[in-house]
Amino acid sequence: xxxxxxxxxxxxxxxxxxxxxxxxxxxxxxxxxxxxxxxxxxxxxxxxxxxxxxxxxxxxxxxxxxxxxxxxxxxxxxxxxxxxxxxxxxxxxxxxxxxxxxxxxxxxxxxxxxxxxxxxxxxxxxxxxxxxxxxxxxxxxxxxxxxxxxxxxxxxxxxxxxxxxxxxxxxxxxxxxxxxxxxxxxxxxxxxxxxxxxxxxxxxxxxxxxxxxxxxxxxxxxxxxxxxxxxxxxxxxxxxxxxxxxxxxxxxxxxxxxxxxxxxxxxxxxxxxxxxxxxxxxxxxxxxxxxxxxxxxxxxxxxxxxxxxxxxxxxxxxxxxxxxxxxxxxxxxxxxxxxxxxxxxxxxxxxxxxxxxxxxxxxxxxxxxxxxxxxxxxxxxxxxxxxxxxxxxxxxxxxxxxxxxxxxxxxxxxxxxxxxxxxxxxxxxxxxxxxxxxxxxxxxxxxxxxxxxxxxxxxxxxxx
Length: 464
Ligand code: HEM
Fold this sequence. Notes:
By secondary structure, the protein is of the alpha+beta class. The protein has helices at residues 30-35, 37-45, 67-76, 85-94, 103-113, 119-145, 152-169, 178-196, 208-233, 241-249, 257-288, 290-304, 311-314, 318-330, 362-366, 390-395, 409-426, 460-463; strands at 26-27, 51-56, 59-64, 81-82, 150-151, 337-341, 345-347, 350-352, 357-360, 427-431, 439-441, 445-447, 452-457. The protein has a domain at 87-334 and 392-463: CATH 1.10.630.10.
């Protein structure tokens, strides 16, 4: 599932657009979807009106790409749309925590978790992130001295995994931490295969992938259940998210070990891969757009003068935030949202039947030429206060929208802004000449070949 256009990975070359026909679904070949998922979705999204039924083999989907239709599904008529088959595929690894649960269970879980994501947590996230980013920069300094490139996707993953582990458990993950990254990789692979393939084997069938899935799940469960049991015995006034969750479950906590496990694995899973890819894409875009990087450096120098930010400082860095918003417009890590229609509905004249899979290609809506000027250009000032039109606000949903909007949006935002502020004051990252850039899309979209980048010292003026 790789993008085709090396200049603007993920953007498929223009091809004829299917005409809008409310009665017949557009046929999409499975091979086309597998070869270029993002490009196929973009082409379908160009259907006049932005809502189109399509079929892959015997399965029917409705693609919803216009701003009002996205709002309809996520906000106005949200109760009609439930979790999808894609969520059940993800639940094979992460269980039925906040991302995959639905209905009354989801409401209860969200009520318990929401208060934990408060300002106090965000302040801790900023401090932990700043400390870890400084450590990373010390390592990059050695790479710079030796003239060695750094692999930014892996480095951002390691950084954000460290931050979420500290936030969840108040400790670093045990070495080797790669069982956790392996688990995410295998979860994504299992999920994406099952999302696309018409026939899937039960996970107890011992294929190589299923055996890997079970091995990873066992290792992660062992670690997570140990942490849960420690806190159930004595939480020792711990400040981590897990301890707060257990306190929230009160006298139900002992009976809810399995649900606690699902909640924690869900937060861990949701909390680092997305943030890491958003940061990786941001470094690439900043390297491509010198003027934006210069303006970022000026803002950071004026507000921070070389020091790391606190959570209070972040409010004084509007341009830094606009950069992150624009980066997630061009490369939303969660590029597509999915739902299942719980009842029949009609969206902009297109019938949705009960049980249909509904696909919201956020990446296509956020780069639609109908809504955005020069949609492929990296222009953070689009997000300056009061600039977005109503339709743009409705189409822009890197964190989703409505009741199921990302619980960690604030967490991710302060984390990413801190990384940007600390790194950009010390160094600039330059893509190694000739390094190929393409997009792969599983549950998130990420640079297929990673991003090998050279570390350069930021000019002296950047820190003054
Ligand atoms: C740049 C980083 C992130 C992006 C782009 C992102 C994106 C999203 C999106 C699009 C959704 C909505 C999915 C849907 O409607 O089907 C979502 C849900 C969620 N995210 Fe994030 N996320 C990020 C970071 C985080 C972090 C750091 C955490 C936790 C620490 C987190 C926890 C969650 C949870 C628990 C949900 C489910 C919310 C619910 O359904 O009630 N996310 N995220």
